[in-house]
Specification:
single chain, alpha+beta, 5 strands, elongated
């Protein structure tokens, strides 16, 4: 028969293992009970379960240019893929390309029909 100290130690070890296992079950359960969709910097349980498809074509007075090559040089590049970040990005492009940039930007989420994020072929530098 184990002594009182050994029994107490065994009880604490059992409680620690039980607490660890309960945490492993309860933490993921939160994502099932209250699912949310968020593609920003904070984590969500369903953030990787969406499919995004975008097509973008940019042109200035000299013809088409690769806006994504310019995008790769920016530190805030991942944030520019959100709709509200397009306006500052387009203003920056206008400044870099002499104030005349046209674009067609279409995106679809989860295989839904694509939507235009800017008027097709519209002058980005004159948009609000």
């Amino acid at each position: 028969m184990p002594s009182g100290d050994a029994r107490r130690a065994s009880t604490w070890i059992s409680l620690a293992i039980g607490g660890f296992l309960a945490t492993q079950v309860l933490v993921p359960l939160r994502g099932v009970i209250a699912p949310r969709v968020d593609t920003r910097a904070d984590f969500s349980w369903s953030m990787y379960s969406h499919s995004y498809r975008c097509q973008a074509k940019y042109a200035d007075r000299n013809g088409p240019f690769d806006a994504f090559a310019e995008l790769k040089r920016r530190a805030d590049a991942p944030l520019l893929l959100h709709r509200e970040a397009l306006v500052p990005w387009h203003h920056w492009l206008c400044g870099q390309h002499g104030g005349a940039v046209t674009a067609t930007v279409r995106c679809a989420v989860d295989f839904a029909p694509a939507a235009d994020l800017v008027p097709p072929g519209g002058d980005l530098c004159r948009l609000p």
